[in-house]
Design brief:
single chain; 121 residues; mainly beta; seven-stranded mixed beta sheet; 0% helix; elongated
Length: 121
C-alpha cells in the first residue's frame, strides 16, 4: 500500500523554526509532484507549498519568504523548512503526492495523516 508519513511537528515560540519531513513508501514507480497543506481548527484545508519533479515550486502568499519546500535526491522524502513562525501558522500540516505505479494509466494521489504545529509563547 502506498503511504506517506509526516514528522517534525511540535511546539515552537513565535519567530522560531521547524523542519517537517514526509516519507513515501509502497509501490511507487515515480512521483510527479509533492505538496504541503495545512488545516487550522474550524477552517478549511489550504495549500502551503508544492514542488514538481522539474523543480518548480509554488507557495501560498502567507508563507512566501519564510517557508521552503524541497526533496531529497531520490524523491522519497519531501521537506518543509519553516522559519520566522507566527501564531497564525498553527495547524495540522499534511503532505500529499501525485504518483505513478508500474500498472497505472494516469497519475494517482495519496495523503499523509498529518503532523501538528503549534506556534505560541
Amino acid at each position: 500500500q502506498v503511504q506517506l508519513v509526516e514528522s517534525g511537528g511540535g511546539l515552537v515560540q513565535p519567530g522560531g523554526s521547524l523542519r517537517l519531513s514526509c516519507a513515501a513508501s509502497g509501490s511507487i514507480f515515480s512521483i510527479n509532484a509533492m505538496g504541503w497543506y495545512r488545516q487550522a481548527p474550524g477552517q478549511q484545508r489550504e495549500l502551503v507549498a508544492t514542488i514538481t519533479r522539474g523543480g518548480s515550486t509554488n507557495y501560498a502568499d502567507s508563507v512566501k519568504g519564510r517557508f521552503t519546500v524541497s526533496t531529497d535526491s531520490t524523491w522519497i522524502t519531501v521537506y518543509l523548512q519553516m522559519n520566522s513562525l507566527k501564531p497564525e501558522d498553527t495547524a495540522v500540516y499534511y503532505c500529499n503526492a501525485d504518483y505513478l505505479t508500474i500498472t497505472s494509466y494516469r497519475a494517482l494521489e495519496v495523503w499523509g495523516q498529518g503532523t501538528r504545529v503549534t506556534v505560541s509563547s
